[in-house]
Specification:
This protein is of the alpha/beta class. The chain contains 9 helices and 8 strands. It is about 40% helix and about 15% strand.
Length: about 230
Amino acid sequence: MGTLKPISRPGLYAITDTILMPADRLVPAVEAALRGGAVLVQYRDKTSPHTDRLRQASALVSACHNAGVPLIINDDYELARRVGADGVHLGQEDGAVTEARALLGEQAIVGVTCHASLDLARTARSNGADYLAFGRFYTSGTKPDAPKAAPEVLTRARSLGRPLTAIGGVTTDNGAELIRAGADMLAVVGGLFSGTPDQIEQRARTFTQLFATHHPLYPISSKPGAQP
Ligand SMILES: Cc1ncc(COP(=O)(O)OP(=O)(O)O)c(N)n1
Ligand SMILES: Cc1nc(C(=O)O)sc1CCOP(=O)(O)O
Ligand SMILES: [Mg+2]
């Protein structure tokens, strides 16, 4: 068995956005999410020139590693390798898990989009995915046309034995339903990053509190009121 990867901690998965977070606000916004308890961060930028993406991803590696949190790069495992990120998130059209693993190494975190499909999830698991992402669960301003999923898919996917991520229109109001259905991470763009750093930090704390209240495996020592 390999070493346990850091995604074994349930919690908020913060995903960046080029519209909500222009270059000068990117790092402060992510630092606010980290102060609020985000356990994983994804750099998702589908439009900026390569040199900008390289600079921004490098800055995020430093911010995340200062907080002891892994940084995932969306789509681009070559960029992940260049900046020393901790892994990559792959959609169904973004290349093979095995190729990403070969480039990034055994310890890399590779996540895969499974939409609402247990078959896609089984295939992703066989190919070595470290977490399985399901969605979109609610109305999403960031990706309105993503295929729909119902929370029950999370409950069914629990038997696959991989951490489950829920994405798409997730907010502090609807997140508890997804955690109770089986989500180990809530992947959030608009429901987290549409605001000032203070608001982002407060929302991240609220998401973190949802895990403390509703996730069965939330670390005992992190539960409010628990003795250290
Ligand atoms: C955690 C997480 N889940 C799903 C996605 C979506 O990936 P994909 O289907 O490749 O779509 P794009 O994000 O590339 O538009 C994700 N990025 N992260
Ligand atoms: C990037 C992405 N992927 C989705 C999927 O369902 O695969 S939904 C989505 C957008 C997530 O942003 P927001 O939290 O603002 O809805
Ligand atoms: Mg993709």
